[in-house]
Amino acid sequence: MHLRIETASRTSATPHHAVCHAGARALLLLAVFIPAAVVVPAAAVAQPVLDRSPNMAGTWVTSPRNLFFEISHRFQVVGGDVDVTDIFDGAKIVNYPTFLLAYGLLENVNIGFRYSSNSALAGGPNEWQPYATWGAVRSTGGAAPSLALTGAWNGAAQSVDVELSSQIRFGRLGLLGAVRGFSQAFENAADDGEAALALAGGAVVSITRYLALAGDVAGRVAGPSGDLAWSAGLQVGIPYTPHTFSLLATNVSSGTLQGTSTGVPGVVYWGFEFTIPFSGFARWGDIFDPDEGSSTTGAVPPPQTPLLAPPAAATERRVTELRISGLRYERTELRVPVGTTVRWINRDPVAHTVTADDGAWTSPLIGPGDVFEHTFSTSGEFLYHCTPHPFMQARVTVVEGRDTPAPQTPDGR
After folding, report:
1. Is the residue at 291 inside a domain?
2. Which of 2, 124, 296, 341 has a 20 to 30 A CA-CA distance from 222?
């Protein structure tokens, strides 16, 4: 497959109960509404837990036709005077898992399903929540927020639930906020059928590219009473993979919108979360194709090129070729004149993308041996990354003039 995009690129710049204490309400309101002060166009990206806190999903939506799986496993230590240090001794462990399966239905639109098999809030064994999320606004970097709107159905509460979430980053600090509404709210294991409104706020502090500390707080501000919900986590990215996990503590037993808005009184749950994106889900159908693989499993086919010579106009194009190999772009720094077409050739056995950090342009999934082209028609500095593998990052600097820049090494020097 040979893909080509030509656009006028944009320049990228590098406590308790419903009657909450006034201070807690003020903090929640600030966390929700400050990130929503400025809006910009949206673009879908991958979501590691490094970008959010344990009980908040942020504004992330996966790319179209991608499948995303997540398990959030929480447990409670019971059995008299015991704590988490007694899990290998006489303590009993009660588990509270929540499973998430999400699919990129359209650009910036996800559909998904959350299932909590042991909800302490619902007063029964199961809590399930089908939902849809629209990533309405995507930050282009700097102090510009993103926004998302989620609509859901909580089967245990028989409730229509909605969330308006926002997210913004200032260097190493990320802030999250959300307003949540429920048509019928749980009141600690008792559904009284009343509507409720909740606010949530969280923060993420990046320590390194693969390590962050995160926490959040949520509480109802109208409707049935409920305990303040909280969580704290150590967020970890697994280097050179699209997977992330979190080690966490919280007083929330389920991962639904209602579950993460009301704490369970007197309980601390410990646990972990693991994210598994299946990039290019549509390509998984190839495993049933008898013409795929055979004896060349794992091999990368040569890049597909035209069989006939290109027309004269095409030969006059200024083209720079870059390979994608070893889960990295061949050059992390590239300098080219205005009007240059950059051609990326995927030499890896897995699919990649070439996606502008500001969301101005992106490739579809580039399969093994496939080619993607993008023409840079304006000067500026353009940062890009791979959506399934966000640790893959690079930069193209476009300058005025027709002179060919000095030759560069594969590392851009």
Report:
1. no
2. 124
Phi, psi of 134 (to 5 degrees): -115, 115
pTM above 0.85, yes or no: no
> Which residue, chain included where needed, has tokens 């706020």?
201
Q: Is residue 293 part of a domain?
A: no
137 and 61 share one domain: yes
Please give the residue range of the domain that contains residue 61: 34-278
Helix (H) or strand (E) holding 250: strand 244-250
Both 264 and 154 in a single domain? yes
Helix extents (H) in 16-146: 22-33
Both 328 and 270 in a single domain?
no
Q: In terms of domains, do 171 and 120 share one?
A: yes
**Residue 66 burial class via C-beta count within 10 angstroms: exposed 0-12, middle 13-18, buried 19 and up:** buried
Tally of domains within the chain:
2
